[in-house]
Sequence to fold (435 residues):
Amino acid sequence: MTSKASGSITVTLDGSNKSTTLPLLGGTLGPQVADIRKLYGDLGIFTYDPGYGATASCESTITYIDGDAGVLLYRGYPIEQLAENSDFLEVCYLLLNGELPNKAEFADFHKGVTYHTMLHEQLRRFYDGFRRDAHPMAIMCGVVGAMAAFYHDNLDINDENQRRIAAFRLIAKVPTIAAWAYKYSVGQPFLYPRNDLGYAENFLYMLNGVPAEEYVNNPILSRAMDRILILHADHEQNASTSTVRLAGSTGANPFACIAAGIAALWGPAHGGANEAVLKMLAEIGTPENIPAFIKEVKDKNSHTKLMGFGHRVYKNFDPRAKIMKDTCHEVLAELGIKDEPLLDMAMEMERIALEDDYFVSRKLYPNVDFYSGIILKAMGIPTSMFTVLFAVARTVGWVSQWKELIEDPSQRIGRPRQIYTGAPSRDFVAIDKRG
Ligand code: CMC
Fold:
């Protein structure tokens, strides 16, 4: 543990003479954290925090978010600077290793990733087992999990070198798995990765290329894709990352853990939101319908959410959303799209929501997913692939967090407790004696 003691709090149990003193811990940035581990032993009580809104589940050196100030740092570097000056593979190195690489380190890392981009040829046959209309996220969960059946030589989580190779394999192969999930759904031939292309460029090639024609890369679009990957690369202990850590805490292999993360990401409250935003905009149809939609969102009985708005941690603005909005304008300009009704609708929706007391009082701002779908659609990426793309980007974050967990000597199996509200202890009654 590298956090430092920074005081203590004393907890006294009302109506008894029992009390305990809990250490307060401080990290590099962020609020103090009460270390409650001895609370149960000393006072016999648990803490209750459904949704973990006030619980730090681990120590981490990877990503920092200040939700009130709209700050996101990867290994200390602001997301804005990385999105502007770095590229996705360099960010991968940074997240995994803690520092930006020098030229030799980067060349070595690049080689390590590109060396692993191809899939075991037998893994290809897995695709035939899926229905033609399978959602690509279903294929992702299945094929990534199945990697454990193919790469036995790096399943020993206690071997540092095997962990390193598993990381390379996941980061390198996930774009291939994702692109093939799409190709399968449209009945086009799978394209093998090209190691002469950059990471984002190769991904776009495998998605959009066809063997019958020469593929022409558009550097502005591959740069936009690279930036989208950077923005989604990690986000501290969100639902999918916590899922990866929980699975990892049992000693499960890395492929199983990342497949678990992909499953958690799929939900519309998390990574599925980018797909849901476009569906929502399409359903609203025209800007005149926005006020009626907003009214529906504000009606608690409707269960309708303004997708792409709100965040558990960001209560000011999501810094990724700002970069995404700028990138959206750049991409549309590059593609010569002067009038994109979806973008007009999104901007109008944002304007109306940010003036509405419902959203203002709850500190609900556009999140990373609000504009990403519009860019991806303009780039010709089908809606069903949006969350898949998020998974491709987040794989490095999941792997970095999994590695950190395994390398943390204080890590134990994740095992929350509960408030039991079921029947008290009672005796079994034979079926013929039940009323
Ligand atoms: N539309 C309408 N009302 C909302 C929204 C929304 N998008 N988000 C939160 N609220 C309301 C919520 O109903 C609650 O109201 P009240 O206090 O009256 O009960 C209040 O705001 C606080 O919300 P919460 O549900 O306690 O917030 P949470 O931290 O549990 O949920 C969230 C965060 C992201 C799941 C939620 O804001 C949401 O469902 N947003 C839409 C889905 C979305 O865009 N998700 C992507 C998140 S960013 C990318 C990622 O992490 O994957």
User: Anything to note?
Assistant: DSSP finds 17 helices and six strands in the chain.
